[in-house]
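Run folding on both entries below.
>entry_1
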Amino acid sequence: MARPTWLAYCFAALMVAVSVYCIGRLAFARHLRRRNQTDVTLAHMFMGFAMVGMLVPSWNVIPNGVWETVFAVLAVYFLTPGIQLTRRWAATSSGERHHYVMHNLIHTVMSCAMLYMYWLGMPITASAHQAMAMSGPPRDAGDPSLTLLLVAILIVSAIWQLDTMSRYSANPQLAMASIGGSAPTDVVAASAFAPEASDAAAPWLAPRLEITSRIVMALTMAYMLVLMT
């Protein structure tokens, strides 16, 4: 498959912007006493920098094995509360709890998609001949059915979050809950990234910008999966 290098550089620049934004979000959220999902922001920062290295291999400064460990940990981190909530409130879950479960499962899928792309191992900007020269015979092209499933989930996630942005003005609290902006009380209390009680009623930090960054990341990941198979 032809791989347009210029487009890969464009997506890489977007991922640099998203990652830098995440760093700024982490720095300013507590300083401005605004609400923020620290775990999700960290996950997006890691994903952004990792995808930059996949899109432009010469910009990759961290070994693949380190990234694979990071995303394996993130997959377990996001999957565990989703399973616990599904079991605990399977019969009586509220809409907010349902959205929180889906939010965690989507981030689990994103973490697994990152692992899958590392397993495929083909740089986006390299031709098959260049990839063989750099790292030996290319790996298996992957399972087309699994790739299609991951791409579909990522695109649906982007559409869902675009709809969330359109609903934000009418109902900010419900819109933020739909992307995991709030969680059942006992889950928040058990989280290492839970906000302080005094911050519980604080306004959300740049919610539309956060949603936009999630949409951009999901679509970039879908694009990469298509090219890597």
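>entry_2
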Amino acid sequence: MKSRIEKQMQQAFNEIQMARTPYVLKQMVVYSKFTPEQRYAQCVLEMSIAYDNLRIAMCNQELKQIEINKMKGKSRTVQLNKKIKQVELEQLHRAMLGAEREFDVLFEMWQGFEKKFTREELNAAQEEEYTKRLELQTQQDMNATGRVSQGNQEGLRQIGKSVYPELDIIRDTEKRYLETGKSRLLIAVPTEKQATEGLKCIEKLNLPIGTEVKVLNVWGRKVDDAYNYAVQEALKDNADFILTVEDDTFPEESALIKLMELIRANPKTAVGAWYPKKEPTKEGVHIILKDGKRQQLKADGEVHEVYTLAMGCSLYPIEMFLKIPYPWFKTTANLSQDSFFSQLAREAGYKLLVDTSIKCKHICRITGEVFE
């Protein structure tokens, strides 16, 4: 005979049997899906699993009872084995209680669906389901870390979407430009320390009429990280273009206006102004390919396609960063951050142009010597 306490314990054991409560089954399992079709499919899937598990458990329960009934004899070993089988039978009974409760909840949910979907209807809803799921996961990545994880980047690529969570940003940008003739520009200037006295390198830049301009000083970061951060800020601001200017590079007053004209006249390009290395040779910093060999770009007053677009004074359409996977800029043992991005841009089908008639001064931060 079971004692009163043991009966109370057994009752308590039985009461808690249901690993997933009605709330969890509804909110966390079935309604975690985005479309009615996928919610229906998930409900039916869970219900079928619970149904099959119950039928198997009933068979196991009967088999277990048969095993117990076959245990004859009064030896201690036989009696102990019989007790173990009885405990196993009780465990199986408790598991069945939980499975029955889950099945009842799922069955009620299934009955509550206004429409029972066919296989064809479920297939047709897959694109919407996965698009919504990846958009949410991407937005969560950006909220948590400011960048999109590699797994979600790959998922977005597989469904033909860009890496940024606001997947309609290109359409919105085109609409804004066509309707108003205005565009948004972020000017990013990375510095070692915060520029508390202003950014002298861009003070004289003339701004294009009809362009909303925001200046961002990114300081205290490694160069590649600074540019990645600047692009993320431009994306958040729904900018149309980002202009990168290094604090030792001083563009001519009309540089930005000319670069805007050049980029508008050449779709799917990034463009830059010419400036020399900080060397007496006055070689340009941009790299071109000539006869299969890499050479520095000379200033001849013409526009040239380059192999590496240096970032001292360069203008990029924001759509580039929607098509190219993150990280956009990375300094490696063999590549500078601008060479790294130039490789990605060319692989994505973008041209890199430099107008050598647009000049910048290059100034040594230590000596103040000017190279032009």
